[in-house]
Write a structure and sequence with these properties.
Immunoglobulin-like; four-stranded antiparallel β-sheet
């Protein structure tokens, strides 16, 4: 047994009994090459994104984060797996930001047939070298859903990177579940650079058991040789699970050297007590150490979506803000934000309803963000 995996045996013994967290059958997304190496500028390489162990597969979304000094993303092509049962695919994106080193791609399907089961390629991504070197490829913000829109993944890490000034210094991050209903269980991995930090511990947050269900932690399984920590928990009891947003866990890292390290969530799973995820609605200010430097509306997540999606906007200074949902005819159907807001980053959930509280029809909608004279629009796809 790997000497770094001292807690893994206990973790997997407990995990066998957790509802909705079977390692053998859990839907996941993976990339067939987690890093690329190039000998010369202009050289190209293609990677495949796979969905594994899905049932009645209907839609997906993912981000890939890379080093833009080494490579730029060139294109994304939809794989044949999503439409392999005769359903019509609707790609969304790609959105490529080679300045930040991030791309986002998504797709949904429509039709009367069931979605595919098993495993297959959902997309191929082509990169082009900007210099000789090696870059890691990290999947983030992964979401899978079936043809009915039941969401498999929705979770985030705060902050997504940590900077440490000296060996021995410690830093703690929070893992949040957002806009869930009747939450019953979770599992996640965090990937990090073990040359800079080692994971020390993971502590269960209070959110999962906040409705007085009994929580059973599983792990953590820490591998500081590979730079990975795995943690999960489930609940049992007669009460409903918690709704809304809350902290699933806090994870503590200790510096091995001075430096900055990104923290990447992988293999995320959330289930309610019945095995499905349902999201709710709220707006809140995101706690960050630094103020934004520009006005910006980030791409909504998930997209495509049903029944709800998360929008994040950024304000470098206080201003009057409006965030409205508009249909393809240009008609306003929902006002999410309208008023003064102090500088900062904010998130709000659109629940797929209009200003009268009625569910909107499936289709394309626009999120229009205004702050002073700044205007930005994002396209969203609401699934049937």
């Amino acid at each position: 047994m790997n000497k770094h995996m001292t807690t893994s045996a206990a973790f997997f013994l407990v995990l066998i009994f957790l509802p909705g967290l079977s390692r053998g059958s859990a839907p996941t997304v993976r990339i067939n090459s987690s890093q690329l190496s190039f000998n010369s500028m202009g050289e190209q390489a293609t990677v495949e994104i796979w969905a594994d162990n899905v049932v009645n597969f209907g839609a997906f979304q993912f981000d890939i984060v890379y080093n833009p000094a080494v490579v730029h993303a060139q294109s994304v092509t939809l794989g044949g797996f999503l439409s392999s049962t005769g359903r019509t695919p609707i790609p969304v994106g790609p959105e490529i930001d080679n300045g930040l080193g991030q791309l986002r791609f998504a797709a949904a399907t429509i039709g009367t047939n069931a979605g595919p089961d098993g495993l297959g390629i959902i997309a191929t991504v082509t990169f082009q070298a900007q210099a000789r070197g090696t870059t890691s490829l990290a999947l983030q913000n992964v979401q899978l859903s079936d043809v009915s829109g039941n969401i498999i993944v929705t979770v985030r890490i705060n902050p997504s990177q940590i900077s440490l000034s000296s060996a021995g210094e410690e830093s703690t991050v929070e893992i949040w579940a957002d806009n869930v209903a009747n939450l019953g269980a979770f599992q996640f991995d965090i990937i990090y650079n073990p040359a800079v930090v080692h994971a020390q511990s993971a502590i269960l947050g209070g959110f999962l058991s906040s409705t007085d269900r009994t929580a059973i932690p599983a792990g953590p399984a820490i591998d500081n040789g590979q730079g990975r920590i795995t943690y999960g928990a489930a609940t049992f009891g007669t009460n409903a699970g918690p709704d809304g947003s809350g902290i699933l866990a806090t994870v503590t890292f200790q510096a091995q050297a001075q430096g900055t390290v990104p923290l990447q969530l992988q293999k995320v799973q959330l289930t309610d007590i019945d095995g499905n995820i349902i999201v709710g609605v709220e707006e809140r200010k995101i706690s960050t150490s630094e103020l934004p430097t520009e006005f910006r509306l980030l791409p909504n997540y998930p997209n495509p979506f049903n029944p709800a999606t998360r929008l994040v906007y950024q304000l470098p200074k206080s201003d009057k803000v409006s965030l409205r949902i508009i249909n393809i005819l240009g008609q306003e159907i929902r006002t999410l934000v309208d008023g003064e807001r102090p500088a900062g980053s904010y998130e709000i959930i659109w629940d797929g309803r209009d200003n009268q509280g009625k569910r909107v029809a499936a289709g394309i909608y626009l999120a229009q963000f205004r702050a002073g004279s700044f205007v930005q629009t994002r396209k969203m796809l609401y699934l049937p």
